[in-house]
Amino acid sequence: MIRNSSDFSRRRLALLLAASAASTPAWAQTTSGPADQALVARAVAYLEGLTEATSRFEQTDARGRRSTGALFLKRPGKARFAYDPPSGLLVVSDGGVVSVQDNRLKTFDAYPLGATPLSLFLAKSIRLDRGVAITRVTRMADGFSITARDSRKETAGSITLTFADAPLALTGWTVTDAQSRPTRIQLLDLQRASGLDKSLFILKDPRPRNLGRGKV
To answer: Fewer Cβ in 10 A, N or C end of the chain?
Structure first.
């Protein structure tokens, strides 16, 4: 069963995934210039074409604390964030449910994929017509970034996706919460992959079945 979770657990999931808290992967184009629109279109086409990939990552939270791990991605729907010790965290999307296992705290939580930040990256089709408003496109010497927020204003904060250019590649993202606290994920060596093992995207609740579990 999918557990009900505390507000703390939901905030922790958002930080672990370090993505926007929008519940759909739809992007609404609010930038007016054709050059900005062209960059957004390039980014969307790139993300939709990134069907399988692996990468090391480094996460830096608002207090400057760092953790590292390995990312495995298989679109649509599947991802695995395996944090290195001593973190003890494992986040897995199996295509329908996102499971979060914390070995240090001995906890296990699960959420519908469509209600988690991962849906931004894992949807089969990334739309440009509803749900998430793009508020800024920033050009840099070696790439560009796209900042988006929940256009329905159901969730405060924003996400900034960062891309390298020539060749185009996702290099990371930063989520800023309602208190303007940023959490950054830097992808260290994103590589396209093929034939990733299906077992990477399966995570079962390790707790004995006699432990009580809530229902959604």
So the answer is: N
The tokens for 193 are 């992959």
Residue 1: which residues within 8 A CB-CB, separation 6 or more?
213, 214, 215, 216
**Could you tell me if 17 and 123 are in contact, meaning their C-beta atoms sit under 8 angstroms apart?**
no
At position 90, the amino acid (one-letter code) is L
Residue closest to 123 by CA, chosen among 200, 56, 51: 51
Can you read off the two tokens belonging to residue 83? 């944090």
Instruction: State yes or no: pLDDT of 53 exceeds 80.
Output: yes
Q: Which of 174, 175, 133 has its CA nearest to residue 154?
A: 133
H or E element that contains 131: none
Cβ atoms within 10 Å of 25's Cβ, excluding its own: 23
Confidence of residue 31 (pLDDT cuts 50, 70, 90): low
Q: Residue 49 corresponds to which tokens in the numbers above?
A: 């074409």
Q: CA–CA separation, 146 vs 80, rounded Å?
A: 24
Count Cβ atoms within 10 A of the Cβ of residue 85 and give its class: 0-12 exposed, 13-18 middle, 19 or more buried. Answer: exposed
Give CA–CA dist 144/151, Å, rounded.
22
* Cα 23 to Cα 13: distance, rounded to the nearest angstrom: 13
